[in-house]
What we know:
By secondary structure, this protein is an alpha+beta fold.
Amino acid sequence: MFDCSAYLTHIMGELVFPADAMECLSNSLDRVLNHATAREILFRDLDRYEQDIHLSYRDVLVDMEHVAEMTGVHRWKTELILFLLYSKHLREVYLSRNVDLSIFHNSMLDLKWKLLECYAVKRMWGCFCALWFPGFFSFDRFALGRLQFELIPFTYAEFRQGGKVLKKGDPVINVHIPRTLTPLDGASCDTAFAMARSFFSDRLGDTPAAFYCYSWLLYPAYDTFLPETSNIRAFRSRFSILGQQDDGEDEHPDLWRLFDADYTGDPYDLPGDTSLRRSFREYLIQDGKTGNGYGVFLA
Length: 299
């Protein structure tokens, strides 16, 4: 078994984790390694990943919850540590499949984005949504430029655009928008979409290159407060909106993504330190609905 402590320090440095986070997670791993049963579970799950990158990720996350209970290390830390350590084998997978390691690095940066989100929202170094990571570690989801992509089947009957036809069951490139602390500007999105078309071209075959997205950024009602120059509005305009899913009454599950805070039920409690946050907060004060939109466009 490789030197977990040394590798953890290495990968956190490679991803430029904050110094406080590096110290916290290194100390947390030491506590796990100093507990005989917890160490055995960790090494077993590392071996399982090396044997099969499509292992049951839910099972290993349950293991990390048990490790947390044994050691007193919060499970948001043990779960993030596990995936950081998994990255060693994933790098080898990239090499064996001749995929550029810049894509590996960009994809692994998602561990950093989720670390920073966790600290911003929960004031803890860790990750509170580790079930998001398996797509990267099963070699299905990739960060290409500013965006992240994976292939999924199209679930609608048919979509036509510019003489091209997308049929139900055809593969489409699913788009995710990570919070990278950089603008979602048109040029960076253009580059990312071009990279994705090239990356998935062999797997798409004769199917038109189509991009699908399900996100709060595509919720049409938000245009009521977004300025014409908004990057979010420009991003949504790329897509033909197929539909929307409204949040339930008094349910706003995605607000933490924008406000770095769990919603208390009172919009006046939300921060208004940016123009977007102020506009969104006022929208909520006026009983504006929240939700997600979903759409597609053919490239």
